């Protein structure tokens, strides 16, 4: 393990390690996880940091992802800031529990360091869980807030952001990242250490939580996702949807690069955004005016901004490490105004900048 | 004439436990769940555990609505996952009483993994395990604890071990795990059994508070609807058949005598 990263230090570490350090420093109350490549460093780093001796954070290696996610459901139900991490097959196993967390209107953080699928697949980087993360994944009408870091710094930063958003809207948030960002080492400035909330602060902040204080509170709190009366269940759903509309209105995040004068646009997230950026440099040298929009929140998705840009550019390239998933949202945003083309590799292969450039050139030629 | 005219303080011999809510129970008449609920409510009250705080974990099964009846904080778990839920709650709130309440489908079929591992880790929780040998809630299908030859909606000609395997005495396994401190099998078919079950629940809850490890209280119970018997007949059948396969008594008691 790299470095303890004391306050204000610039340290060198893996994205997965940054997640662990940032969680402890955020004042996270608990982590529950099960090993799977390429994200086991999260659990390993936490076990090595022994935060139960410093901040009092609970760390537990569970017997499965099924157990981990239900432990997260439990911690969240008691108002604690808890999270889990896994990679694609493990995240699939968690889907029932994630649906329960959404239906229970509970704040929690789930990290998916994606590997190539389907099935047991490969341990190499991929972005093929985009559909699963942004379109539901588990059963029922729900959404996760999905954050897509592109660097080790953002891995660290999005832990706090994810928890803050999850608590603000009482809904689960996910960090969706390809295995490359999880595994690569970069410089990172870790956030300062915050104390964990006291139990009293948890009670005050989460008056709805099942903390075991029915007597003190004067009423008991019940966290349940069951409602046999369909009319009430429909009302519950309407409340969930209202939350999702508020999130869509307030929390869309994205970054733009060289879009001011762009005649062509790339839309890419995570590692693919950085690879695309390299391709953009070469293209610009050759006189092609191309820019990049990088969605930071994959849900809510920056439909509006992409729609605007689709009135400015002649065509859009969507480089992804999958068969073409986010491209569907880009197409929705452009409403057929300009050609939208996929470029990508599957199964754990990372496209090179030159492959992206070739795809851009063929888009321009066809046009 | 209303209830107050009949039940006067001077002629009242037994009353609803303080922590048992005055809600109409959805359980079938003769079902064991209601009796165990009453015992749990009494024990929490008598031990003052509602004052120090309790978080109960409800299963998926007929007892899913336990949270409507006992006046403590509840978390309703996904089917079988109650011990994982209880694990996290107890670790995050170590001073609270944390217990699960689970049926035999919930605990010994879909949730075997979570139950065994929570107990093996010696989580300081109590598991109340209602074994009625059938899936009550979904309409009487076979469970792992269904007896050989027993008719259910998915074993209409009786459970055959060659097709369905053997009845699972999962509590015997709990007794073998180093993480458990107290493992017992009780029943609620008559007054004496009910009293013993109450004592067992008390001991299990005390162990959870004292941090001695996992306690498991199996309650061999009646599902007269699933068994398609009258309440009286199911009580007799329980003694004759269920207790033959699942004999009552302590399987492990490592707890210091108080
Ligand atoms: C994942 C999942 N699978 C199946 C079900 C359907 N289901 C609900 S209750 C139940 C069986 C409950 O039986 P048991 O635990 O024995 O409790 P009882 O109703 O007998 O008290 C099943 C299979 C479900 N709710 N969730
Ligand atoms: S179906 Fe069986 S377990 Fe369920 S309430 Fe009725 S008797 Fe009890």
Annotation keywords:
heterodimer, A: 367 residues, alpha/beta, Rossmann fold, 2 domains, 7-stranded mixed β-sheet, 5-stranded mixed β-sheet, 42% helix, 19% strand, B: 258 residues, two-stranded antiparallel ribbon, 18% strand, globular, binds thiamine diphosphate, binds iron/sulfur cluster
Shape of chain B: globular
By oligomeric state, this entry counts as heterodimer
Provide the CATH superfamily of the largest domain in chain A: Thiamin diphosphate (ThDP)-binding fold, Pyr/PP domains
CATH topology of the largest domain in chain A: Rossmann fold
Ligand species = thiamine diphosphate, iron/sulfur cluster
Could you walk me through the main structural features you see in this protein, from its secondary elements to its overall organization?
The complex is a heterodimer of chains A (367) and B (258). Chain A is α/β, with parallel strands linked by helices. Chain A folds into 2 domains: 10-199, Thiamin diphosphate (ThDP)-binding fold, Pyr/PP domains (Rossmann fold, 3-Layer(aba) Sandwich), CATH 3.40.50; 254-366, Rossmann fold (3-Layer(aba) Sandwich). Chain A contains 15 helices and 15 strands. In chain A, strands 3-2-4-5-7-6-13 form a 7-stranded mixed beta sheet, with helices on both faces. In chain A, helix 1 (15-26) packs across helix 2 (41-49) and helix 1 packs across helix 7. The radius of gyration of chain A is 21 Å and the shape is globular. Chain B has one domain: Rossmann fold (3-Layer(aba) Sandwich), CATH 3.40.50.970. Chain B is globular and about 55 Å long. In chain B, strand 7, helix 9 and strand 8 form a beta-alpha-beta unit. Classes of the chains: A alpha/beta (367), B alpha/beta (258). Chain A binds chain B through residues 29-30, 32, 58, 60, 62-64, 66-68, 70-75, 77-78, 80, 82, 96-97, 100, 199, 210-216, 220-226, and chain B through 50-51, 53-55, 57-58, 64, 67, 71-78, 81, 84-89, 91-93, 96-98, 113-114, 117.
């Amino acid at each position: 393990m790299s470095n303890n990263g004391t306050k204000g230090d610039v340290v060198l570490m893996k994205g997965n390690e940054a997640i662990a350090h940032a969680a402890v420093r955020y004042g996270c109350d608990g982590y529950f996880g099960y090993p799977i490549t390429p994200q086991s460093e999260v659990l390993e780093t936490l076990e090595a940091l022994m935060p139960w001796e410093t901040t009092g954070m609970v760390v537990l290696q569970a017997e499965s992802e099924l157990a981990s996610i239900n432990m997260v459901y439990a911690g969240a139900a008691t108002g604690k800031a808890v999270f889990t991490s896994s990679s694609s097959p493990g995240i699939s196993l968690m889907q029932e529990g994630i649906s329960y967390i959404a239906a229970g209107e509970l704040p929690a953080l789930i990290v998916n360091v994606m590997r190539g699928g389907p099935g047991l697949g490969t341990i190499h980087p991929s972005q093929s869980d985009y559909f699963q993360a942004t379109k539901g994944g588990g059963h029922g009408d729900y959404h996760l807030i999905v954050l897509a870091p592109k660097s080790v710094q953002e891995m660290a930063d999005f832990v706090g952001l994810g928890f803050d958003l999850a608590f603000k809207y009482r809904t689960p948030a996910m960090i969706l990242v390809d295995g490359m960002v999880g595994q690569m080492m970069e410089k990172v400035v870790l956030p300062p250490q915050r104390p964990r909330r006291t139990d009293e602060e948890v009670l005050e902040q989460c008056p709805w939580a099942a903390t075991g204080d029915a007597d003190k509170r004067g009423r008991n709190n019940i966290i349940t996702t069951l409602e046999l009366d369909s009319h009430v269940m429909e009302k519950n759903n309407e409340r969930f949807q209202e939350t999702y509309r508020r999130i869509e209105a307030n929390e869309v995040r994205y970054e733009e690069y060289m879009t001011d004068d762009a005649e062509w646009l790339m839309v890419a997230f995570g590692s693919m955004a950085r690879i695309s950026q390299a391709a953009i440099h070469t293209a610009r040298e050759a006189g092609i005016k191309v820019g990049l929009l990088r969605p930071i929140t994959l849900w809510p998705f920056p439909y509006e901004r992409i729609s605007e840009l689709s009135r400015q550019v002649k065509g859009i390239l969507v480089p992804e490490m999958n068969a073409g998933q986010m491209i569907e949202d880009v197409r929705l945003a452009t409403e057929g105004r300009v050609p939208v083309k996929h470029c990508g590799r599957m199964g754990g292969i990372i496209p090179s900048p030159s492959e992206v450039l070739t795809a851009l050139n063929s888009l321009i030629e066809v046009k | 004439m209303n209830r107050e005219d009949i039940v006067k303080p001077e002629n009242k011999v037994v009353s609803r436990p303080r922590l048992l809510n005055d809600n109409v129970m959805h359980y079938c008449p003769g079902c064991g769940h209601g009796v165990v609920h009453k015992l749990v409510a009494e024990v929490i009250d008598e031990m003052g555990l509602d004052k120090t705080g309790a978080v109960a974990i409800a299963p998926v099964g007929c007892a899913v609505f336990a949270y409507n009846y006992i006046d403590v904080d509840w978390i309703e778990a996904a089917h079988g996952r109650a011990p994982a839920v209880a694990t996290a709650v107890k670790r995050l709130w170590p001073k609270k009483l944390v217990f699960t309440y689970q049926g035999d489908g919930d605990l010994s079929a879909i949730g075997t993994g979570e139950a065994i591992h929570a107990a093996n880790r010696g989580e300081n929780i109590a598991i109340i395990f209602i074994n009625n040998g059938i899936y009550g809630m979904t309409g009487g299908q076979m469970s792992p604890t269904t007896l050989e030859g027993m008719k259910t909606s998915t074993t209409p000609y009786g459970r055959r071990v060659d097709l369905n395997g053997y009845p699972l005495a999962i509590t015997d396994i709990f007794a073998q795990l180093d993480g458990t401190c107290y493992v017992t099998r009780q029943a609620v078919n008559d007054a004496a059994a009910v009293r013993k079950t109450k004592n067992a629940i008390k001991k299990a809850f005390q162990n959870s508070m004292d941090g001695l490890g996992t306690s498991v209280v199996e309650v061999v119970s009646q599902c007269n609807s699933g068994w398609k018997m009258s309440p009286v007949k199911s009580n007799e059948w329980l003694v004759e058949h269920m207790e033959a396969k699942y004999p009552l008594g302590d399987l492990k008691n490592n707890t210091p005598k108080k």
